[in-house]
Every structure is written in structure tokens, then in C-alpha cells.
Design brief:
Elements: H1 3-7, E1 11-14, H2 23-36, E2 39-42, E3 48-51, H3 58-66, E4 82-83, H4 97-108, E5 120-123, E6 137-142, E7 145-150, E8 162-168, H5 170-186
Length: 208
């Protein structure tokens, strides 16, 4: 372990499915933050990261949160989608982003051997407030269906995703996501961004 890694403070990350924090989790998190002098950070992936966790307090903090239904991020878990508020809360919203995120979680959430490192984003309209076009798997709602982008990323070498589906329905969208996630798994040894996979000759979908 490097010196910089040794200096990192301990933290825990809660997966926030559909971008919605259950009230029981929020209440308990507030109580724990006061009791153990914690800080709560909203990550760019729309999860909650608990900062300044002392080693001697870690198990008690985990136990209290698990008892109210919290889910911790961990190896092999399918990522939670970053979402905008979508239809019902935004005048531009075309689709219910919370509902679609829940459908994706229910379909893929039981997977226990998902290879990192990829993210998912859902935008409820072409304004793309969830930054779907620059995410590993990005979904954008349009008036004629869903557009699906793969391979977007930020970082030191940012790139926009490749659109591999245009105006598809929900069932087809899920089929395509399953196929590209399976491709990621079969072509990833440890961890991999989709940006390094979409140019492979056997990537299953061309740009559209």
C-alpha cells in the first residue's frame, strides 16, 4: 500500500437506488452523523458517502443503517443509476426517470459478479441534465422513445458516448443494456470503462 493510500480516511458508500433517499435512512444517517462526528457527501454518481468513519465505529454504523434498509456499495454490485427528476417534477420531462431506474435495478440488481468500473445515467428529456451522453451507459428520453449511449466518460481524456439505439421502447432498451453489460463482463478481467470496449471489432452494436 502506498503512503498516499495509507493516509486516506475511512469512508462508507450507500447506494441510493432511483436517486431517492428513504426517510428512515436519512433520519438514521443524521443521528449517526451527530453521534460519531461524520460528514455526508453526495457523490457525483448520486450515492451518499459517509466520511470520517473511525475503525472502531464502523460496524456499529453499518449495523444501524442496515437495520433501516440501507444498501452499501460493494464489489460485484450493479451500479445505481444517476437520474434527473424527470416527468412529474420538470416541465421538460418526457419519462418517469425514477420508475425506469427502478425497473433497471429490479432487472439487474440481483447480479453479484458485476465487473467495475462503469456508471449509468438516465435523462428524462433531450436536455440531458443527468449527463447521459458522457456516461458509460447513458439513457436519454425523447418524444419517440429512448436513445442509448455507450462509452461516454469524463476524466483527463473525456469523450462523448456512441449512440447505439435510437427511439427504442423499454423492452428493447433493457435487452440492449443486458447485452452490453454481458459484453463488459466477458471482456473485463478486473475493471474497465466502456470507452475502452466500444471500439473492439466484436462490440455488438454499431453507432446509429
Amino acid at each position: 500500500m502506498s503512503k498516499s493510500e495509507q493516509m486516506l480516511k475511512k469512508s462508507l458508500t450507500l447506494l441510493i437506488r432511483e436517486g431517492l433517499v428513504p426517510s428512515a435512512v436519512l433520519k438514521t444517517l443524521g443521528e449517526l452523523a451527530e453521534q460519531y462526528a461524520l460528514q455526508i457527501y453526495l457523490s457525483t454518481a448520486q450515492n451518499l458517502r459517509i466520511l470520517d468513519v473511525k475503525a472502531e465505529d464502523e460496524e456499529a454504523i453499518k449495523k444501524a443503517l442496515l437495520e433501516v434498509g440501507a444498501e452499501f456499495k460493494g464489489p460485484g454490485k450493479f451500479p445505481s443509476a444517476r437520474v434527473c427528476v424527470g416527468l412529474g417534477y420538470c416541465t421538460l420531462g418526457i419519462t418517469d426517470t425514477f420508475a425506469l431506474s427502478k425497473i433497471i435495478s429490479e432487472k439487474f440488481g440481483a447480479r453479484t459478479d458485476v465487473k467495475p468500473k462503469f456508471k449509468i445515467a438516465i435523462s428524462g428529456c433531450p436536455a440531458c441534465c443527468a449527463n447521459s451522453m458522457n456516461t458509460d451507459i447513458g439513457i436519454k428520453a425523447t418524444k419517440v422513445g429512448y436513445d442509448l449511449y455507450v462509452g461516454g466518460k469524463g476524466g483527463t481524456s473525456p469523450r462523448s458516448g456512441k449512440r447505439i439505439a435510437k427511439g427504442v421502447g423499454e423492452a428493447q432498451l433493457l435487452e440492449i443494456i443486458e447485452k452490453v453489460v454481458d459484453f463488459h463482463e466477458s471482456n473485463t478481467v478486473k475493471k474497465q470503462r466502456f470507452a475502452k470496449l466500444i471500439d473492439l471489432p466484436d462490440f455488438p452494436y454499431p453507432a446509429v
